[in-house]
Amino acid sequence: MSIREIRVAGHEALLLATKLLQRARRANPHAGLWEAADLQWWWRKPRQSDEVEKLFWVDADGPVAGVLLTSWTDDDWQCDPVIVPHTSVIEPGAVWERAMEHAAAHSVNGFEVPVRDDDRVFTELAQRSGLTAGDRDSTAWMAAADRPEVMTLPGGFVLSDRTQRQDDPHPMSHRNGESVAQRLAECSLYDPALDLAVKTTDGTVAGYSLYWYDPTTNVGLVEPVRVEDAFQRRGLA
């Protein structure tokens, strides 16, 4: 099967990255670091990396590999080389080499490359590239059948979703900018009915959470969950 390399930026790159990560998750339910919804959550605010062209390798069924670049700040960049598990049409070393070149060209002050501890191929490539282990992170998984019972809100608080408050400022706007509602609406996996907020009866935002469901992979993601400092330890989380 033949593949071709393409370069795309902006929202088109987000759509291709979504398809790539969905294809990777369908190929292996446990491999990789990110869900498609992770990248869509990262789209919530404008970033310098939005207009940087991303590399993708595509076959007749869509993207099979890619190099994803994300700028958290102007000086803090992340590079994610992604390959669909079990594919044989492209070598991991070739994708890794292009990823290092591409990231270095856009992040002059260095960049991070997240790698799973059990990913022997990328771990070895990272070591050969002179990268050193830094921060560690983890993702918690839960089977849908194991989810806890829905809690009752304490008195004085009201739960609503975004479909009920479309004209209100988005509760995440003070941390993510005034365009957060528009940016989330541009994401194919975003569901305003799963964009929840808890407010006091006088309208003060006490907390919020956003739930992503991917019907292509049947995987859900909870990102973010926040209770404002003034309302901590009151049974809202």
Descriptors for this entry?
single chain; 237 residues; alpha+beta; Aminopeptidase; 2 domains; five-stranded mixed β-sheet; 6 helices; 9 strands; 27% strand
Provide an overview of this structure:
By secondary structure, the protein is α+β, with helices and mostly antiparallel strands. It has 2 domains: 4-128, Aminopeptidase, CATH 3.40.630.30; 144-231, Aminopeptidase, CATH 3.40.630. Helices cover 25% and strands 27% of the residues. The strands form 2 sheets. A 5-stranded mixed β-sheet has the order 1-2-3-4-5. Helix 1 (10-27) packs antiparallel against helix 2. The protein is elongated, with a radius of gyration of 19 Å. The model has no long low-confidence stretch (mean pLDDT 93).
Name the poorly predicted regions: none
CATH architecture verdict of the largest domain: 3-Layer(aba) Sandwich
CATH topology of the largest domain: Aminopeptidase
User: Strand portion, in percent?
Assistant: 25-35%
Number of discrete helical segments: 6
Brief account:
By secondary structure, the chain is of the alpha+beta class. It is built from six helices and nine strands.
Would you spell out the secondary-structure blueprint of this structure?
Elements: E1 4-8, H1 10-27, H2 36-42, E2 54-59, E3 62-73, E4 76-83, H3 92-106, E5 111-112, H4 120-128, E6 157-161, H5 173-176, H6 180-185, E7 195-200, E8 205-214, E9 219-227
Parallel strand pairs: 4-5
Antiparallel strand pairs: 1-2, 2-3, 3-4, 6-7, 7-8, 8-9
Helix pairs in contact: 1-2
